[in-house]
Amino acid sequence: MARRTDELQRRFNMSNRPKKADEDQLQPTMWNTLRKLSRPTNKNFPTADRRLAGLRRSFRLSRKDNMSQQVRQKMGEAHAGIHFPIYQEVLPHQRKPEEPYRLVLLTGPNGVGVSELKRRLLLSDPEHFSVTVPYTTRERKKQEREGVEYHFVSKHTFEKDILNHKFLEHGEHKGNYYGMSLDSVRRVMAESKVCLLDVEPHTIAALYSSEFKPYVVFVKPPSIELLRLSRRKAKVLASQNEQTATKFFTEEDFQDMITTAQAMEYKYGHLFEKVVINDDLAMAFTELRDELTKIETETHWIPNTWAHV
Ligand SMILES: Nc1ncnc2c1ncn2[C@@H]1O[C@H](COP(=O)(O)OP(=O)(O)OP(=O)(O)O)[C@@H](O)[C@H]1O
């Protein structure tokens, strides 16, 4: 029988965009961040390429400049067509042994620890957790194998695939395309593994269906004081003049992380089923792993539209 609880209603009942009155109350910085959040970008390339190539941050800009008009138009249509209902009925759900595991989506501001938590989950049980293989048009390096680090395809094929909505997220860097396809997610799920995917929050909508039953985890930074303490020794990669070097987090990085997290929660909080505050890394990992175990083994709520495949 369908039921609706206040908590679930809170999660599922908000429209995707803040109301005008709400917009007026937002701090200017947060509102600018909200605007930025609407731009497609890609978090799924293997960290080495994404970061060594300076992809993560420059990606958003290069995509905007380089993508063909036709492709941009198609992408706009794809995003514009997705709406969430004001209310959603929910049903209790328990995974049957023959069913695929729910897709696990990890999201959060840059540098908060999404990749680190994903890496730890993978290491903790490589037979159980898996990740997708991205597509690229760049040249294959000597040590790389097709289908392991990347699927290597031609520019023509890639552009055709963009128009056919094959990619969940895609972008361009230094004249090469990179992208993550829906089929890669399906392949992992068909292997009876838990597919871990880190995404920008706007991508959640494209996966919000009975086929994927996404379990959305928001990785949130702690207070700025705790960020300063916990990230004292942590380093991030930074691009400088096309070169990449590691650097310590700056005060600006921390501020940015907190403002972006607030904006993400404001705009997409109704889709987050679990919020993990990443202060102590070991504790955050344990909390996340335990929660994923519960979702696999215990009865929990899902939108009733997901009940039938
Ligand atoms: N709780 C934590 N305490 C200390 N250091 C942390 C913690 N969480 C993550 N880190 C470190 O912070 C840095 C950034 O983490 P990570 O690469 O996972 O961020 P991210 O959210 O994936 O960001 P991006 O998508 O930009 O790569 C890494 O050096 C990581 O080891």
Automatic annotation (TrEMBL):
InterPro entries from the UniProt entry? GK/Ca_channel_bsu, Guanylate_kin-like_dom, Guanylate_kinase_CS, MAGUK, P-loop_NTPase
Pfam families tied to this protein = Guanylate_kin
Guanylate kinase-like domain span: 101-293
Q: Which segments show compositional bias classed as Basic and acidic residues? A: 1-10
Entry's SMART domains?
A: GuKc
* Region listing for Disordered, in residue ranges: 1-24
What SUPFAM superfamilies would the database entry show? P-loop containing nucleoside triphosphate hydrolases (SSF52540)
Protein name from the UniProt record: MAGUK p55 subfamily member 7
Question: What high-level taxonomic lineage is stated for the organism?
Answer: Eukaryota, Metazoa, Chordata, Craniata, Vertebrata
